[in-house]
Amino acid sequence: MSRKPLVGITGRRFRLSLVAGADARYGAACMDTYMSDFATRIARVGAVPVELSYDADPADVCEWLSGVVITGGQDVHPARWGGDVSVVGGIDPRTDPNAHDPERDDYELALVTAAMARGIPVLGVCRGMQVLNVALGGTLVTDLPAGPIAHLSALAAPSNGDVEHVVTFEPGSTAAAVFGDSATTNSWHHQAVDRCGDGIVVSGRTPDGVVEAIEVPGAPILGVQWHPEWMRDDDPALAWVVTESARQEASHVC
Predict the structure, then answer these.
(1) Residue-level pLDDT at 162
(2) Which of 68, 73, 84, 173 is 20 to 30 Å from 123 by CA-CA measure?
(3) How far apart are alpha carbons 246 and 5 in whole angstroms?
(4) What is the pTM of this model?
(5) Residue 253: is its pLDDT beyond 60?
(6) Pick the catalytic residue: 126, 165, 212, 215?
(7) From its phi and psi, is residue 128 left (phi > 0), alpha (psi between -120 and 50) or beta?
(8) What is the pLDDT of residues 133-172, one digit of tens each?
(9) Helices 102-117 and 127-135: crossing angle, nearest 10°?
């Protein structure tokens, strides 16, 4: 009997003191946090979600995972891709959700490398798409200039649908096979892919030219700049990573 695919989900590490009403006696104790929408939707389409701690060695977990989702969050540290490090403040990422987090960068970059080495499907979401690009030597746009299309809402998370735009996909791409010729997506980002990393191609853009989807031809690697876990309806991106993960699982069944 075949098992359901196991899909790893990355998260973030914060001090418990950030939780409203937390007992002060926790002091500097930390908690690992994960967006439950990822787990809920991944389970809904047939996989077992596995939340990955920074302490779970990437090479070890990729021995038994069937797929990986690199989730959204704070900016990737510019030192990782040759950006302007003067934008980095000396803030503890455990106490500020928006602070650069070198430990998370290290973990997710290593996880992408380990997953690709084993041919494990990887879906990168928002920051996660940028991590994919940086892992393969690409660069990022530090801060998108104001333009005709809004990419970041100052008012609300994308679950409220106050910032939406159309993404058009390249014919023949994995993205086009998953989403069709185009899709209306949410948007909540101020950075974007600039120069593509080795082997990466752009497969989706908004009308203003901002990169919204990337992939590696011939490999189960897909990145999307929007948040599929917060779309009003189930987004095909999560079904894609589960389907590809099921194929990966089946290929290892004796």
Answers:
(1) 65
(2) 84
(3) 5
(4) 0.95
(5) no
(6) 126
(7) alpha
(8) 999 999 999 999 988 888 987 665 666 666 789 999 999 9
(9) 60
Catalytic residue among 108, 212, 215, 229: 229
Question: Looking at 100, 151, 165, 227, which residue is catalytic?
Answer: 227
Exposure on the CB side of residue 42, measured as CA atoms within 13 A: 27
In 3-state terms, what secondary structure has residue 108?
A: helix
User: Which residue matches tokens 């990729």?
Assistant: 62
Contact criterion met (CB below 8 Å) for 232 and 161: yes
Whether 126 is catalytic is yes
The answer to whether residue 151 is catalytic is: no
Tens of pLDDT, residue by residue over 91-134, are 899 998 889 999 999 999 999 999 999 999 999 999 999 999 99
Domains and CATH numbers, the chain: 6-251 (3.40.50.880)
Supply φ then ψ for residue 162, to 5 degrees. -85, -15
In this structure, what token pair is assigned to residue 221? Answer: 């690697």
> What are the two backbone dihedrals, phi and then psi, of residue 44, each rounded to the nearest 5 degrees?
-60, -35
**What is the amino acid identity at position 113?**
T
Strand 211-215, strand 221-224: pairing: antiparallel
pLDDT of residue 84: 92
244's tokens = 């590809």
Tokens of 103: 């430990």
User: What is the C-alpha separation between 115 and 37, in angstroms, rounded?
Assistant: 23
SS3 250: helix
Three-state DSSP at 177 gives helix
What gap in Å lies between CA 187 and CA 177, rounded to an integer?
A: 21
What are the pLDDT digits (tens) for 80-100?
Answer: 999 999 989 888 999 988 899
For residue range 174-215, list pLDDT tens digits in order: 999 999 999 999 999 999 999 999 999 999 999 999 999 999
Three-state secondary-structure class, residue 82: coil
